[in-house]
Specification:
- It contains 13 helices and 8 strands.
- Helix 2 crosses helix 3.
- The radius of gyration is 17 Å and the shape is globular.
- Helices cover about 50% and strands about 15% of the residues.
- It has one domain.
- Helix 6 links the parallel strand 5 and strand 6.
- The protein is α/β, with parallel strands linked by helices.
- The protein starts with a strand and ends with a helix.
- A 6-stranded parallel β-sheet has the order 4-3-8-7-5-6, with helices on both faces. Strands 1-2 form a two-stranded antiparallel sheet.
């Protein structure tokens, strides 16, 4: 049962519950898409119906953002914990390695995606990497053909949102062998070490947004979406 915030869907599932459902869907050869949902994205969806449709059409809308968790508590919902995009990717990589599912990496700069794969392979040596491409390929048809021929069962697309979700929507029917699609934003930057994650203290308290704000004050305008989102959720008489 999904929850809705301002008519935007969120899956109230933990990492473990998502992996369990994915394993079932993979065994049934069903394709699954994973999209991260945070207050900023919900507010964007209020102005852009295409973004709202992209989110709501996904298989799993993960609660990436403390604002979603707070909104669920305010509405006495079922979202138990944050499920961040970068941590979801990490869990999926472990899952892919244990279940021998080849993965494909698409997006970011050449040096970033290569370094991310190198670091990931150091941590998960038995991971099967079907291939990779930087995010600057011009011939999309050729790229999709290469991915399809690679044998990948899982793909991580790092093009920024909603570009990555639109790419998945355009190409999912041509990638019938790929069973798990996740748009991962800047996660390759994190795995490559280009961008440092917030210290564990901030992550445990759900204050990664505050840590990023301290490091990048220019993010203040974006962070103002959080109080506006919570105010609108409280006033919303619908979903």
């Amino acid at each position: 049962m999904k929850e809705y915030f301002l008519s935007v869907s969120v899956s109230p599932l933990t990492y473990e519950e998502i992996i369990t459902e994915l394993r079932i869907r993979i065994n049934e050869e069903k394709q699954s898409t994973i999209i991260a949902v945070n207050p900023e994205k919900v507010m964007t969806a209020q102005k852009n119906p295409e973004v709202k449709d992209l989110i709501n059409a996904s298989t799993f809308q993960i609660a990436d953002g403390v604002g979603i968790l707070l909104a669920s508590k305010l509405k006495k919902g079922q979202v138990k914990e944050r499920v961040t995009g970068v941590e979801m990717m990490s869990r999926l990589l472990e899952f892919a390695a244990s279940d021998k599912l080849p993965v494909y990496f698409y997006g970011a700069k050449e040096e970033v995606v290569k370094k991310a794969i190198e670091n990931i392979k150091n941590d998960i040596p038995n991971l099967q990497v079907a291939g990779y491409s930087n995010g600057y390929r011009k011939d999309e048809k050729k790229l999709v053909s290469e991915i399809d021929a690679s044998g990948a069962k899982m793909i991580f697309v790092a093009l920024g949102s909603p570009t990555q979700e639109l790419w998945i929507k355009r190409n999912i029917d041509q990638l019938r062998n790929v069973l798990v699609f996740q748009g991962v934003g800047g996660s390759f930057d994190v795995f490559s070490g280009t961008v440092k994650r917030a210290p564990l203290f901030f992550r445990k308290l759900g204050l990664e947004w505050f840590y990023r704000l301290l490091r990048e004050p220019k993010r203040l305008k974006r962070q103002l979406n959080l109080p506006l989102f919570l105010w609108k959720v409280l006033r919303d008489r619908g979903n």
